[in-house]
Amino acid sequence: MYAQQAFEQATKVAADAHAQREAAAKAEAERQIEMRKPAKQREVEGWIKEAIKVLQANGTNIDNNSVDEIYTIIMKESNGNPNAVNNWDSNAMRGTPSKGLMQCIDPTFRAYKLPGYDNILAPVDNIIAGVRYTYARYGGFHNHPGLVSMGLGGGYRGY
């Protein structure tokens, strides 16, 4: 009986050690992938991850796997420039140029921002409003016109 218990204990210790090694190797591989990304991409993804945490804490049903979709929208809308202002499209002609990473117009930003996240040019604030607008207007990223178009092999369509 003692030999069986000792065997089971040794097996568990070995399995736990193996799992820890695998987890450490996976974490290191993910870190290496992250470090290979351009600095701008890491910066933008950092803003996105921060915005996702705020959104989750405020009741938005968004998971951490949405980083890629938000990143794509940001790069297509503003090329990752939090100070981007579009002064040439139809919104600008009506006096409401789109601004920031996700190119929100002022009325949309005001309608979808969260309290305390009030600066349209602040990266996290802009992402929060842009994501909340996307969810309210399209039900999520699966219906975002730019992402849908790209998924069908077309070009990005602004929202």
Would you give an account of this structure?
The protein is mostly helical and 159 residues long. The chain folds into two domains: 1-36; 39-151. It has seven helices and two strands; from the N terminus they run αααβαβααα. It has helices at residues 2-36, 39-57, 67-78, 90-93, 106-112, 123-138, 145-151; strands at residues 85-86, 98-99.
What spatial form do the alpha-carbon principal axes imply?
A: elongated
Distance between the termini: 69 Å
Q: Roughly what percent helix?
A: 55-70%
Instruction: Please tell me how large the radius of gyration is.
Output: 22 Å
Largest pleated sheet:
2 strands, antiparallel
What's the domain count? 2
Instruction: Give the structural class.
Output: mainly alpha
Q: Encode the helix/strand succession as letters.
A: HHHEHEHHH
* Count of alpha and pi helical runs: 7
Placed side by side, the strands forming the largest sheet appear as 1-2
Stretches where pLDDT falls below 50 for ≥5 residues? none
How much strand? under 5%
The count of strands amounts to 2
The whole-number mean of residue pLDDT values reads 91
Chain-wise SSE layout:
Elements: H1 2-36, H2 39-57, H3 67-78, E1 85-86, H4 90-93, E2 98-99, H5 106-112, H6 123-138, H7 145-151
Helix pairs in contact: 2-3, 2-6, 5-6
